[in-house]
Design goal:
10 helices; single chain; 7-stranded parallel sheet; alpha/beta
Length: 272
């Protein structure tokens, strides 16, 4: 463990799997007490147990559906009740609707994705706000995506939510800076849950996905993405707010081609 975040208390939403798993472990390694949340309470409890055993940090895992406002508010209150406050809010939880063309996306698909990624982050920030103020400040780390920057095919709902989070980040930075609350955003590309599954199941996927990445590899959640989150959570970034940082090995520079290989089939399917 390092002392970078010693004495700090963090919430990581979607913290039991993929990028969130690595981030939860990294924050704990850097000294933070961590409340890990996700829809699968058994999975979050397991990860918290691993952190306590492997790292020796204080960690709790609970079930939270961030698309439900009352559960988000209860999540923040649980953190305060268990640890005495909150200093760091990592809004990592997200979801993605069916991979269908924009003209086939339904209102329900858009709303479901917005509820998790955008409204869930907004509700968490609002619930944490008075507790940040009580402790003299805090740090919020939201999550955007290269998909939103490139307008990735089939991800309209996700792109809307992720670009909306950039706006939420900048508004929070401007309006809450007077309380020493910093709000930043990262756009990571790494071995998250879906990415890792594709690597395991699709031959050649990793090579194809990293071919145009300047650093030539996929990011490790704990060793590549997590340290940037810890930096933004720590006093090392005390004068950084309102930023959107790409943590993707430079992938945003060339971007990537997302046009589906089966476009004609998708057009004919009508979203079915």
């Amino acid at each position: 463990m390092t002392k970078l975040l010693e004495g700090k208390i963090a919430i990581v939403t979607g913290g039991a799997k993929g990028l969130g798993y690595g981030i939860s472990r990294r924050l704990a390694r850097d000294g933070a007490k961590v409340l890990i949340t996700g829809r699968d309470g058994e999975a979050t409890a397991k990860v918290a147990g691993q952190i306590r055993e492997d790292i020796g940090a204080e960690a709790i895992g609970i079930a939270t559906d961030v698309s439900v406002k009352s559960e988000v508010e209860a999540m923040v209150q649980r953190c305060v009740d268990e640890f005495g406050g909150i200093d760091i809010l990592v809004n990592n939880a997200s979801n993605m609707g069916a991979n269908v063309l924009m003209e086939h996306k339904t209102d329900e698909m858009i709303q479901n994705t917005l509820n998790v990624a955008l409204f869930g982050s907004w509700w968490a920030m609002k619930a944490a706000f008075p507790h940040f103020k009580a402790r003299g400040g805090g740090s919020v780390i939201n999550f955007s995506s290269i998909d939103a920057q490139t307008g990735a095919w089939l991800h309209t709902d996700y792109n809307i939510a992720k670009m909306g989070l950039v706006g939420l980040t900048r508004s929070g930075a401007v309006e809450w800076g007077r309380f020493n609350i910093r709000v930043n955003c990262i756009a990571p590309t790494g071995l998250g849950q879906v990415f890792a599954e594709l690597v395991e199941t699709v031959p050649g996927f990793l090579e194809a996905a990293t071919k145009n990445c300047p650093l030539g590899r996929a990011g490790d959640p704990e060793e590549d993405i997590g340290p940037v989150v810890s930096f933004l959570a720590s006093d090392m970034s005390r004068f950084v707010t309102g930023e959107m940082i790409n943590v993707d090995g430079g992938q945003h520079l060339p971007g990537y081609v997302s046009i589906p290989h089966n476009l004609e089939e998708l057009e004919k399917s009508g979203g079915q």
